[in-house]
Amino acid sequence: MAVQGLGAIDQQYDGSALKIGIVHARWNKEIIDALVAGAIKKLKALNVKEENIIVQSVPGSFELPFASRSVLKDENLKLDAVIPIGVLIKGSTMHFEYICDSVTHALMRVQEETHKPVIFGVLTCLTEEQARKRAGLDPGMHNHGEDWGAAAVEMPLKYSR
């Protein structure tokens, strides 16, 4: 069963002064779309203005670190945080392990290099069923995109200003 999220603590932050980026992969579209929608829903609930939510896409999860670094360094965007969103589902080869490991470490480096919050919005699931549950697509399950949206508001307010 998917964890039910952060709870009431994520409601205490006001994101009205923030500009947040979402960079998402295009693989596993149904799951990605639900996660992006969940993140946007939470950002808006925490007062991030719609015009201050920048959404871009990349081919796959492997491209998330490069794109995340690019949008965070873009002086025209002036983002406070970025949420890279991807879905990796284990197949029958080692590809899953290599991509999971590489993307995870690269996103951490982006955060360290840019001194901006990079919210880890990459699902690494063994089955499509697990991914669907974490995207809130199955009845009664929680959309983890909402948690990522809450974290993207909390982190710059607490640590970047």
Automatic annotation (TrEMBL):
> Origin organism of this chain?
Komagataella pastoris (Yeast)
The lineage's top-level taxon is Eukaryota
Q: What is its EC number?
A: 2.5.1.78
What GO biological process terms does the UniProt entry carry, in alphabetical order? riboflavin biosynthetic process
**What is the purpose of this protein?**
Catalyzes the formation of 6,7-dimethyl-8-ribityllumazine by condensation of 5-amino-6-(D-ribitylamino)uracil with 3,4-dihydroxy-2-butanone 4-phosphate. This is the penultimate step in the biosynthesis of riboflavin.
What NCBIfam families does the record tag this protein with?
Answer: lumazine-synth
Identify its protein family.
Answer: Belongs to the DMRL synthase family.
Q: How does it assemble?
A: Homopentamer.
Q: Which UniProt keywords apply?
A: Riboflavin biosynthesis, Transferase
- Report the protein name in the record: 6,7-dimethyl-8-ribityllumazine synthase
